Amino acid sequence: MNVLWIFAHPEQCSLNGALLTHGINQLREAGHYVQVSDLYAMGWNPIADAHDVTHDVRGRLIVGAEQERGYRRGTLSEDIRAEHTKLARADAVVFQFPLWWLGPPAILKGWFDRVLVQGFAFGVTGTDGRTRRYGDGGLAGKRALVITSVGARPSSFGPRGIHGDVDHVLFPLLHGTLFYTGMAALAPLVIYGADRMDDNGYRAVLPELRHRLATLFTADPLPFRHEDSGDYDDDLVLRPDLSAGQTGLAVHYGASAVAPRI
């Protein structure tokens, strides 16, 4: 199988760098083909603007429309087109980054902004004219695994932790980006205490990393509700008979599923 590994950490001689090397070696030893987009090493430009297209932009820049126009015409910038080629080949995508300010580093956010363009990853329609999103879309059929490191201890990211429930912190990425574009998002691997981790701590996290990569193509994805499942009304609001009386992010998990404790 083909795996694209998106690495967003500025230092190879780090915990994340060591995990990257270990993970790539494991996947290749298992017979998978692995490509790596090391965003810092690539000098990836995170800014989406008119320079992303090589065609003339007349008048006011409407980013989504011009990105789609560039995608359709083949006039997106070379670096974006290169990432599209990698994504098209991939059966699974691993996103690895440190959690900064409760989100991915700006360089990875910029990768999403510039690469997941309208017409390619989202804003696509089916033969019935239906917009394909939330469980469907341009990246349907691919799996996605998030690996993120945080400096804090697990309890502080728990249901009553001061940083907020990690399920909620990562929901915009897992549901609003990966699942939205059609990818089957797997339960993320969150590595706690990264700032204080020693060699023993590193060796202790390796078994879970190995397990996640060994089951990359077999593990059940997060049970998000698909938009076309009939669970949502025409205004994209969950039907009142589902998760009755409940609100919050957990209602977007399937009726028979329990929102996972990550």
From TrEMBL:
<protein>
    <submittedName>
        <fullName>NAD(P)H-dependent oxidoreductase</fullName>
        <ecNumber>1.-.-.-</ecNumber>
        <ecNumber>1.6.99.-</ecNumber>
    </submittedName>
</protein>
<dbReference type="GO" id="GO:0016491">
    <property type="term" value="F:oxidoreductase activity"/>
</dbReference>
<dbReference type="InterPro" id="IPR051545">
    <property type="entry name" value="NAD(P)H_dehydrogenase_qn"/>
</dbReference>
<feature type="domain" description="Flavodoxin-like fold">
    <location>
        <begin position="1"/>
        <end position="199"/>
    </location>
</feature>
<dbReference type="InterPro" id="IPR003680">
    <property type="entry name" value="Flavodoxin_fold"/>
</dbReference>
<dbReference type="InterPro" id="IPR029039">
    <property type="entry name" value="Flavoprotein-like_sf"/>
</dbReference>
<comment type="similarity">
    <text>Belongs to the NAD(P)H dehydrogenase (quinone) family.</text>
</comment>
<dbReference type="Pfam" id="PF02525">
    <property type="entry name" value="Flavodoxin_2"/>
</dbReference>
<keyword id="KW-0560">Oxidoreductase</keyword>
